[in-house]
Amino acid sequence: MPLHPILLAGQWRPAQATGSFRIDNPATGETLPDEFPISAWADCDAALDAATAAAAILRTTPPEKIALFLTRFAERIEARKTELVDLAHAESGLPKAPRLAEVELPRTTGQLRQAAAAVLEGSWALPTIDAKINLRSVLAPIGPVLVFGPNNFPFAFNSAAGGDFVAAIATGNPVIAKSNTSHPGVSRLLAEEAFAALAEAGLPPATVQLIYRTSHADGERLVSDPRTGATGYTGSRSAGLKLKAAADAAGKPIYLELSSVNPVVLLPGALAERGAKLAEEFAGSALMASGQFCTSPSIVILLAGEAAEQFATAVQARLEAAPVAVLLSSSVARALGASVQTLQAAGATLVTGGRAVDAPGCRFANTLLRVDGDTFLAAPEKLQTEAFGNASLLLTVRDAAQLTAVLAHLEGNLTGSIYSDTTGADDALHALVEPLLRAKVGRLLNDKMPTGVAVSPAMNHGGPYPCTGHPGFTAVGIPASLRRFAALHCYDNVRAARLPLSLRDKNPSGKMWRLIGGQWSQGDVAV
Description:
Helix content: 25-40%
Radius of gyration: 24 Å
Distance between the termini: 67 Å
CATH class of the largest domain: Alpha Beta
Largest sheet: 7 strands, mixed
Number of domains: 2
Structural class: alpha/beta
CATH superfamily of the largest domain: Aldehyde Dehydrogenase, Chain A, domain 1
Strand content: 15-25%
Number of helices: 14
Strand order of the largest sheet: 14-15-16-13-12-17-18
Oligomer: single chain
């Protein structure tokens, strides 16, 4: 079968390939027929040139055209739903229903429509006006954005349709999508529909480009190239930090979502009150999508005692009774096994699982490990190794003092959860624990498992390093996610006719919120 073409400079054309790859169906182990190219630097160079030209046009493109593209793209995805779901199932092993067809694909089209509404309304750009001295500022497109998508969300985080893509386009930037090698076929189908939607909306054809794979060196060269405006990356910590080092050396913004163990703290009163229910809730959350969510709870922390032992026994029983789900790829299964070995070498005890399953496809036994507070504090970095998949670590501490010491050694995480009782018995301990955990996470939850991310303006899908590269930004939640891919443009004593529409005296939409003279307003500037 010939190599699939790449989408480059407004055309589907053969890659300047240095090699090729195919992927396996993770559920069956069978190699899928499609073959995709590994692009040489010549493709990357041409994509950057084309994106730079597209960016110049997009800077003066009316928001209505960008909103139309986002809306038509959503409609086109929905029209091709069956084909997309079938291929995503084959490439990822994720179930067609409800996961792909009823949850992830609607979330993807919902993001596109939310972004379209934000583009038309315009407040995301934070237009700010000081009319007394004629000084005005607004967020504006930053330039070509590279998007590296992850393996675990073939639609919602896809480099050619997902959250980073949506945010970059809505901000007025062209996107060079680097497909995740776990779902190149899905990325191709999405890019086909994006390309068609560009023509319908009248946007530059190079606004969306797609490359399937590059060398690591060319990836680092891409993020640091002078033509690159910014990069969005979701994936492994090791690869992400290499890209960050290259981008930082060139002074280029890069927004990373990396590893997270999402600690869950179960306070004593909660365990005594509803321990069996918490075991069920935790096991269900930890095994959802075989633990392959970035917000899966990987560490549960509780005070040692009889209630903790009962919880551990109940969790073990549930993990052993639950079916073993398919992992996303053989590389995920290998990495999970390596992480479990790292945790054991650092002092964790294997309770159950810990091995690959002898069955078709990519499967690893549901796994539970245990460690006490003293052992954890002796090797906190190793014992926070992310075991991406269906493996969890149960950490017991002897008292409140050791609990606070453990929390002080936690790395930055996307989420952190605290469960307390309903009668107030845990309130004093909660007051001690909450500030410590709050400082370590982007999203704090009470009496709720962290699995899943709501597409809401109030969402923070981010947090302190090393879960992300910067604690001030979110990858989910419109309009905040858009601001990652913008530059602050200031206009000093610029004539009215030369200002962007959002900074002129008249509010261009009548709905846009602008900070005028220190007051938020949807009105015009008083003359």
